[in-house]
Amino acid sequence: MIKIILEPVSPQQRDTLFRMLQYSLFEESLTDLNEMNGEALFDYPWFDLYFTEEDREACYGNPQIPGQGDRKEGGYGML
Question: Where are the alpha helices (DSSP H) in 1-79?
Answer without folding.
Answer: 14-32
